[in-house]
Amino acid sequence: NYLLGVGRADCTGPVAEVPLMGYANPEQVGSGLLMRLYSRAFIVADLDDSRRVVFVSADIGMVSQRLRLEVLKKLKSKYGELYRQDNVILSGTHTHSGPGGYFQYTLFWITSKGLIRPSLNAIVNGIVKSIDIAHQNMKRGRLFINRGTVENSQINRSPFSYLENPAAERSRYSSNTDKEMVMLKMVDENGQELGLISWFAVHPVSMNNTNHLVNSDNVGYASYLFEQEKNKGMLPGGGSFVAAFASSNLGDVSPNTKGPFCVNTGESCNNLHSTCPVGGAKMCMAMGPGNDMFDSTRIIGQNIYLKARDLYEKAYQEVTGPLSSAHQWVNMSDVSVELNATHTVKTCKPALGHSFAAGTIDGVGAFNFTQGSVEGNPFWDEIRDQLLGEPSNETKACHKPKPILFSTGEMTRPHPWHPDIVDVQIAAIGSLAIIAVPGEFTTMSGRRLREAVKREFDSHGTPRMDVVIAGLCNVYTHYITTYEEYQVQRYEAASTIYGPHTLSAYIQLYRGLARAIATNTVQDLPRGPEPPVFNIGNMTLLPPLTADRMPVNKTFGDVLQEVRQQYRAREVAEVTFVGANPRNSAENATEHNFLTVERYTSTSDSWHVVWNDASWDTRFYWTKGSFGRSNVTIEWHIPRDTEPGVYRIRYFGHYKKKLSNNRAVFIPFEGTSSVFEITTL
């Protein structure tokens, strides 16, 4: 038995004008909303409340160091020493459709227009609020664990790298991806359901890099389905049951199960360099199982949800035992790794290889880079040397065979481009060990890490531990491939920033944490060097919020393009309003809802909200015009099982108005469509 608490809070942030974080495509800027982003928090405490562990999964690309440090600072001011570096794990789901701009290292500013305070604040506040809610709702309860196989939901997107791993190692596994889902179920002592955490390795990139609507992708849709099922009668985002679908060792795992094809010719481009005969690497893109990216998101999300539901209903194995957690900061650019009694190697200062710029089959790069380049390109190297300086010989030698594109560890203006100080962390809840990793481990890297940690527990008298990897935790350090995968330098290897021995270094470090937990010597672990906090004002290229204007003879919220009078299920109701910049709302109203779909009830002569902007079936588009004008289009993709009746769509916004004394105010407004009827098929 434990004390358990769960909480969920909105962390969406600005849905317009902010670059989305994930594909590193500067053109992929938010301009609307498909689904809201949430932070989901789970607290487990001993019955005597002597120890606690917090696990947070947030619908964001990854947790940044800046984000973690700000969250911990807020928790400290609220709760003192209760929630700390060592017992709080913050994990990102790795959606590629959330707002960016919450990083302090310079590399991430390039594609996300600097440090964007409203974006960072929304995530910090959302995470803290979800922990607050969990903290306030602690009650006695029980934990159950289950595991099972998810089919038809992933492929390995770098199979040629995977094949570099030793044949004897590969022969122990039936697949080149980890298909196993691990699920932790939480109920209170009366058997009331509280929530669940699922860990499964897949990239949330069913929505591709042409998408401009903020959303939580396939794993977010799985959360949505589970929470809608358990929180009956509540709008999306409401209700007390919390279902987190957290990331794991997803480094080389894509949900785009049809595999890579040349967009121009339709032939397969499943080759070492992911290139097409005509158009090169730019034309090689992977396709999901659906007709379009929305459909693929739905299919993959539903697969994951259905497996989770099955495992949840059959979770009988109880988790019991003590809680513990261990954390260290490590300078990852300078770790000595003992490979064996005679051989010691070192990690390197961070650097990205040429193939980093190629991108992947889930989102290709902007220039003519290809994956699997072990040679540099003189043209780009020359430009790089002129703009950013040439990598030192030491760094070049350390990273071999990686040809270095950006020697980020040697780039310090205006601030360092990449972190040196990295978090390693393990939390143990009875027989479950959660390894919080600071990036994207590939399938085989994750297998090696889990096995090493499990062996360490075994050899120190803690056998039969369930070891799970939680991805994208605490600080972002890109990818971690095996030494063998590193040799062929596809995207994941080129993005293994601390060099060929990165994985070996992490295995050594996490074994140390596991040993400390197993032998009850966590207090003797050195804390390690603290990460820096850079003093960054509002360094951003985000356009300033100007005053909103409306067309002649119109006002904000007026309808420009009306709905039809009648629809059937599976059609799309669409209405366009005179709009205003959605950033106004994000910055001036917490928990702002942009739209509702409402149904008329004749018996009470009133309207009832049936859907909101967090609903999967509603889409909110913002189109920026000139001279401060903009339009908002709301679509409702009417579900099959919609009750016939009379409906309307409403829009809620804020417009910015300049006052004479050079101050500005934000004024709320709303718009309502005409009523329309939904008839039976």
UniProtKB/TrEMBL annotation:
Pfam families (alphabetical): Ceramidase_alk, Ceramidse_alk_C
Primary enzyme class: hydrolase
Keyword match Cell membrane: no
Annotated Gene Ontology cellular component terms: cytoplasm; extracellular region; plasma membrane
InterPro entries registered for this protein in UniProt: Ceramidase_alk, NCDase_C_sf, NEUT/ALK_ceramidase_C, NEUT/ALK_ceramidase_N
Residues that bind Zn(2+): H94, H203, E440, Y479
Gene Ontology terms describing biological process: ceramide catabolic process; long-chain fatty acid biosynthetic process; sphingosine biosynthetic process
Cofactor(s) recorded in Swiss-Prot or TrEMBL: Zn(2+)
A GO term for molecular function: N-acylsphingosine amidohydrolase activity
Residue ranges of domain Neutral/alkaline non-lysosomal ceramidase N-terminal in the record: 2-508
Enzyme Commission number, as recorded: 3.5.1.23
Catalysis performed (reactions): an N-acylsphing-4-enine + H2O = sphing-4-enine + a fatty acid
Listed name of the protein: Neutral ceramidase
